Amino acid sequence: MGLLDLFKSNKKIESLDLSWLQVDMHSHLIPGIDDGAKTLEESINLVQRLRGYGLKKLITTPHIMTEFYKNTPETITRGLLKLQHELQKREIDIEIEAAAEYYLDEVFMEKVERGDQLLTFGDHYILLETGFINKPQMLLDTLFKLEMKGLKPILAHPERYLYLHQDNNLLESLIDRGVAFQINLLSLTGYYSKPVKSLAEKLVDRDAVKFMGTDCHNTHYLDALEKLPANKYYSKIQSLSLSNPEL
Asked: Residue span of the signal peptide, if any (predicted)?
């Protein structure tokens, strides 16, 4: 073993601490209703691990997507109550609520225009995602209409949208109008790709990030997330003025 190998073997690996974040507002923990946790036991294990990182509260956000995940406030609430009951039964002390991650399409816009019940959290925040490749033509109009309804849209993981990588003017426009961005902590580890990591870092450097989330779907996400302390942005994100603790 060389000196460099000896140094590496003795180097202390910092454990993941998310106590500074306090609240994770993006995850998929309700079992069996989207591409997140599949079973109640898996949900419990994920919640326990998230609690072990120092988080005090979880706001889990199942997908609502017209073609794939036809969840409703009722199906999500039923799933949440089942999960809450099991956590209480096992004496796992962590607060957990549910909202949704809405896919921005025509059906969602119809819900907004009809005044349908939408799952929000905190101070009337609503989490939105779009397709990853092409800019939705209704993006700006949807954000405006939500705001007119008294809602506060949060754009989930903007660093992952190819159209924002390709259209800096649109990105700057969203930043200038104060759209709330939520980036995934995993993006900073390079989990998705180097370009995604670069844009996440750019948004952090621009102080354009209002929320952060794990976007936890399964154990693989958390295994990868535990590498975050080795990243140079780990300490930087802890100094951001995030709104997570207020939720």
From this structure: none
